[in-house]
Specification:
Helices cover about 80% and strands about 0% of the residues. It is mainly alpha-helical and about 180 residues long.
Length: about 180
């Protein structure tokens, strides 16, 4: 069995993991799960919410392990992945909270019942979308960010944002089916 403490053994585990060795992958996860958990929790301050990001970190790392040029830098590399994913999650949470608060403020400010009803219908349809889809739509249409700015906020590449935006608009249209009369009146 491979020893955990040796840098040479770490390098060997990384090389074997890149070749798809499940035992090596498992051992690397065991060696780093506490460290990754601490990093993610230190950013999110939420143990239950951290679990998904911890899993995402390992999934991302092992899908992209072939891109790691120096296997001896695995530890710092996977820590950076965990940190970046945590920061992105924190931004997403903050944006979602701001969005929810702003939508609440908008509803109180509206005096026209027809306009208020339209906003409620659209808000309910948006809430039925996946968080990522909803956030991209809100950032683009409600907040007026361009795709480059949304890429900086979310960390999602501009090319992918175009696809997400297109699909999210389509899903929103589907959610709004049957409300055409209320929205157009």
């Amino acid at each position: 069995m491979i020893k955990e403490n040796s840098e040479k053994d770490l390098k060997q585990l990384v090389v074997l993991s890149a070749k798809g060795d499940e035992e090596a992958i498992s051992e690397l996860i065991s060696m780093h799960k506490k460290l990754i958990g601490n990093i993610v929790h230190s950013v999110l301050r939420d143990w239950y919410g951290s679990i998904d990001i911890i899993q995402e970190t390992f999934i991302y790392a092992f899908r992209n392990i072939n891109k790691l040029k120096d296997p001896e830098k695995f530890k710092s590399w996977i820590c950076k992945i965990a940190y970046n994913l945590s920061i992105n999650e924190l931004k997403r949470r903050n944006l979602e909270r701001e969005y929810t608060e702003k939508m609440g403020d908008i509803n109180y400010l509206l005096e026209d019942d027809k306009t208020n009803n339209k906003k409620i219908i659209i808000e309910e349809a948006l809430q039925k979308l996946k968080v990522r889809d909803r956030m991209v739509l809100v950032l683009y249409y409600y907040q007026g960010f361009n795709l480059k700015e949304i890429e900086q906020i979310t960390g999602i590449k501009e090319e992918n944002l175009k696809m997400i935006l297109c699909r999210a608009r389509k899903k929103l249209r589907e959610k709004l089916e049957g409300y055409e009369y209320e929205l157009l009146s």
